[in-house]
Structure formats: C-alpha cells, structure tokens
Amino acid sequence: xxxxxxxxxxxxxxxxxxxxxxxxxxxxxxxxxxxxxxxxxxxxxxxxxxxxxxxxxxxxxxxxxxxxxxxxxxxxxxxxxxxxxxxxxxxxxxxxxxxxxxxxxxxxxxxxxxxxxxxxxxxxxxxxxxxxxxxxxxxxxxxxxxxxxxxxxxxxxxxxxxxxxxxxxxxxxxxxxxxxxxxxxxxxxxxxxxxxxxxxxxxxxxxx
Length: 208
Fold this sequence. Notes:
Blueprint: E1 2-5, E2 8-13, E3 16-19, E4 25-28, H1 53-65, E5 82-88, E6 91-94, E7 118-124, H2 148-160, E8 165-170, E9 173-178, E10 183-189
Parallel strand pairs: 7-8
Antiparallel strand pairs: 1-2, 2-3, 3-4, 5-6, 5-7, 8-9, 9-10
C-alpha cells in the first residue's frame, strides 16, 4: 500500500514506512492507520516569457520604436521594432538593438561557442501590415512576398534544429508561432500585452 506523506510517497513493508523506491526505513507505523490528510500540492507554474517584467518593458520599447505600430507615421515605410531573447527562458538576456532591419539584429545560433543562443524573437507588425488576423506572417501572406515569419523560422529549425519562437505584436494583439508544432497561437487580444494585462492572475514574483 502506498501513501502520500509529508516527505513524499511511502510504501509500507511489514509495518514499517519506507520511502517509495528507496528501501530506506523512515519510521515504524501501524499499517492499519492511514496517514493524516494533507493539503493538496499546488504546482508552481512559471510565468510565460511574455509576462516577465523585463520582457513587457522590452515590448513597450519596441512598440515605441515602431511609432506605436505605425500610427505615429502613417503612409510611410513601416518600421518593425523588434528584439531577441538569448539564452534560456529561465536565464536570458534581451538583445538591445530593438530593430529587425537588415544588419541590425543577429540570430545567435546554438553552437559550442555560443552558450546563449536565440530562443525567442519579438517584433511589431505595423498597422496595415498586420494581416493574417495579427498572427505571424506566412509564405502565403507576407507583404514582402517572401517566406514570412513562419517560413523564415521554419527554415532555421530545419537547417539547425534550433526552434526559435516568434512573437508578433500588433494592434490586434500578441501571438506566437512555434516551429516545433507548426502552429500559431493568439495570446492576448488588443494591446494589453504592453501592460501585462493577461498576467494579473499569476501570483509569482517577477524576474529582477
């Protein structure tokens, strides 16, 4: 018989409690007496990366660099403010360039000489260039007529095995594309992501 005790799971062998799978005696215990009821274990779920305080601040900076997603300079060449996250979701640095202009932003590939590869890209789709309902662009709807967000990062994944998630900010909301699943997912409707509105239900400390 197995019980869940204060230090884990226990198996009773000849009236003695043993830590499950270890064979280590913990204390003699009458097998007919169950352990007292304990409060349920509540798993701690880490914040999504877009709910981290420094990432929210970076999204706000990229949004401002884009002229509030094109609204500050209508009828002009769109500027997609952007940034990369390099490292891991639990230990990362924000690329400070805040632009995805050619030659201004670098994808860090995972190699022996690069311990902090890029694992996420955030960029703005200005108003009027936010088709596909605000989701990451695809080869079929890229306004540049190229591979779009999904195609470009699918190519990186196919060639290197490095799956970089692509987050798109627009007036329609925040969404993400994952090359591993090949799926785009809307995360936040509207511009509430700039304030972390969808993260208020999470009661975990922010990264410092």
